[in-house]
Write a structure and sequence with these properties.
This protein folds into 2 domains: about 5-140, Beta Polymerase, domain 2, CATH 3.30.460.10; about 145-370, no CATH class. Helix content is about 50%, strand content about 10%. The chain has 15 helices and 8 strands. It has helices at about 5-10, 15-25, 85-100, 105-110, 115-125, 130-140, 145-170, 175-195, 205-210, 230-240, 245-270, 280, 340-355, 355-370, 380-395, and strands at about 30-35, 50-55, 70-75, 75-85, 125-130, 300-305, 310-315, 320-325. The strands form 2 sheets. A 5-stranded mixed β-sheet has the order 3-4-2-1-5. Strands 6-7-8 form a 3-stranded antiparallel β-sheet. It is elongated.
Length: about 400
């Protein structure tokens, strides 16, 4: 439901809202009033309120401790947040500093409050009520690239921290916590995926709505990934996890989501930096009729990073174990752990670079991964192993 539909449902028009805000906020020359939030983006419902921002340097009466004024347009709640021009300019300056591909990952992830992230997005999608020219000046400081990078950087920082946590939880055999950790990793990976499709709303409650708005061929854009036409259905199926604490199933679940996470973050970062992908590779579907071995799973600490013109593979918490590859690796690395046969990947790459070159690239990267011990070892369930050994001794 969008703003016009919402107002009509309550018996009002946009002109009624504009008149109400002029009366209650009394904006003056040089001030800005804009409407934002779920209704402006078509995500609202009949229980929504209307979010408004007033940019003013004046002291206002009736402002709550949280910096907002609540008024009523009939049965509709109008919640106005008040911000000074200096505070907004400071936020925009921080965005231009930290919303970049080369910003410090920790500072970019932790340098904004949740409200500041929402405000940046809302400023980008604002509907002006008063002071439109001044609003456009502020909006020109909020570039799409800056919003994408600050959202991506936060998702990546959180995901890498969870990836590290996974190793420790698995080592402790805390399988229920592993499931919880994997679900959090999935959430941040999906937020990154949405960023890759241009969705900048950082509010998690709108994740499903944003996934439902993705095109039906969404998965064909991301090398190594295959899923149903409904991206929300894909996410919810993965979110279910494992409920009985079974070590083998939980470990497999962790590897599946971690593979998705690596695929997603590499695709988004490579795309944001202007890197290209082999279209034939992205259309490969995992199959059960395996004609050749698939690329193996990678161990839990292995992560990818794209710089547009080259790609890095590194081990978390071990800066010495870092290797750089030409940009073509962005078309191969996502297939580690995907179940796609090596022959299919080589055939798809051959459309771009020829069969001989494609074979050398795929097998070379596979052999290098073995040499560097990137590949995950199968999980050994010690209780099952001990039971097997006991049976062997009894039967001997």
């Amino acid at each position: 439901m969008n703003l016009d539909e919402f107002l009509k449902e309550a018996g009002f028009l946009l002109a009624d809202l504009q008149a109400h805000l002029h009366t209650t906020l009394e904006p003056q020359l040089g001030e800005v009033v804009f409407v934002c939030g779920s209704l402006v983006e078509g995500l609202g419902n009949t229980a929504s309120d209307i979010d408004i921002v007033l940019i003013t340097a004046r002291e206002r009466a009736g402002v709550s401790e949280t910096g907002n004024i609540v008024t009523m347009l009939g049965p509709i709640i109008c919640d106005t947040f008040i911000m000074t021009p200096d505070a907004l300019n400071s936020l925009l300056g921080k965005l231009n500093l930290l919303g970049t591909p080369d910003a410090d990952l920790y500072q970019s992830a932790k340098g904004f409050t949740d409200y500041e992230r929402r405000l940046i997005h809302r400023l980008h999608t604002a509907l002006p009520i008063f002071g439109e020219d001044d609003l456009r000046v502020f909006q020109r400081c909020v570039t799409a690239d800056a919003i994408h990078w600050q959202k991506y950087n936060r998702s990546r920082h959180e995901a890498l921290a969870l990836q590290l946590d996974l190793g420790g939880l698995i080592q402790q055999k805390d399988w229920y916590s592993v499931v919880f950790c994997v679900q959090n990793l999935l959430d941040w990976s999906i937020d990154a995926l949405l960023t890759g499709f241009g969705a900048t709303n950082p509010v998690m409650k709108w994740r499903i709505s944003q996934l439902q708005s993705l095109p039906s061929d969404w998965f064909s854009r991301i090398p190594g990934l295959y899923g149903p036409a409904n991206a929300a259905q894909y996410y919810l199926a993965l979110r279910q996890g494992v409920t009985d604490g079974n070590p083998q199933e939980t470990y497999a679940y962790a590897q599946k989501v971690l593979t998705l996470s690596r695929q997603t973050f590499l695709w988004v970062e490579h795309r944001l930096r202007g890197g290209g992908f082999c279209e034939s590779c992205a259309r490969i579907k995992p199959c059960t009729d395996v004609r050749s071995a698939a690329l193996a799973q990678l161990n839990l600490k292995i992560a990818f990073r794209s710089y547009g013109d080259h790609v890095e593979v590194f081990e978390l918490n071990n800066p010495e174990n870092r290797h750089s590859f030409p940009a073509f690796a962005a078309n191969i690395l996502p297939y580690f752990g995907s179940g796609v046969p090596v022959d299919e990947l080589i055939a798809a790459l051959a459309d771009d670079c020829g069969l001989s070159d494609a074979k050398a690239k795929v097998t070379g990267l596979r052999d290098f991964s073995v040499h560097q011990a990137w590949e995950a070892q199968p999980l050994i369930d010690e209780s099952q192993l001990n039971a097997t050994l006991r049976r062997g001794r009894i039967g001997s």
